[in-house]
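Tokens as discussed.
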């Protein structure tokens, strides 16, 4: 009998920590709301078109912005690098999602890009897939965790970048 009572007590204290509500959110950000604030490209020199690039992007959302945990997203800033040959290759980035309350959410991600003109010569720029963990935040979002995915069409030469974001997040119980 004591074992059953002990097991029930353990379950009462551990289940709330395990059972966290996950929320999924998808939204798009057009190129008109996106600005490259910095971009530097260096040719590697080992093959034609092989460049290493660092970049910073700011996406400023308007009144119709999505909400995370009931708070509107104000801005998403990304800082990263790419190692492309003719816009094909890997990269990595770090994101800061700033909410209307001033709280922030942090994520980092891996990038894989491919040149759109390889399959259709009339297309310019590239397409990428980005994915990685949401690692925390500030204020109400200090214990946020989850996954951020992003798919973008971009052209570093023109500064164009439109994106679709998919987030799955939860706010972990505070210890």
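Sequence:
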């Amino acid at each position: 009998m004591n074992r059953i009572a002990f097991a029930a007590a353990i379950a009462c204290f551990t289940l709330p920590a395990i059972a966290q509500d996950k929320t999924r959110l998808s939204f798009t950000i057009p190129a008109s709301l996106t600005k490259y604030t910095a971009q530097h490209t260096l040719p590697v020199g080992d093959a034609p078109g092989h460049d290493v690039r660092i970049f910073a992007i700011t996406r400023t959302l308007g009144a119709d912005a999505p909400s995370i945990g009931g708070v509107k997203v104000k801005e998403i800033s990304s800082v990263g690098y790419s190692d492309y040959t003719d816009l094909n290759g890997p990269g990595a980035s770090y994101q800061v999602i700033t909410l209307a309350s001033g709280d922030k959410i942090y994520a980092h991600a891996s990038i894989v890009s491919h040149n759109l003109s390889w399959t259709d010569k009339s297309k310019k720029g590239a397409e990428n897939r980005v994915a990685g963990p949401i690692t925390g935040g500030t204020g109400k979002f200090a214990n946020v965790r989850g996954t951020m995915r992003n798919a973008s069409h971009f052209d570093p030469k023109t500064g164009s970048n439109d994106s679709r974001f998919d987030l799955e997040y939860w706010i972990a119980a505070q210890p």
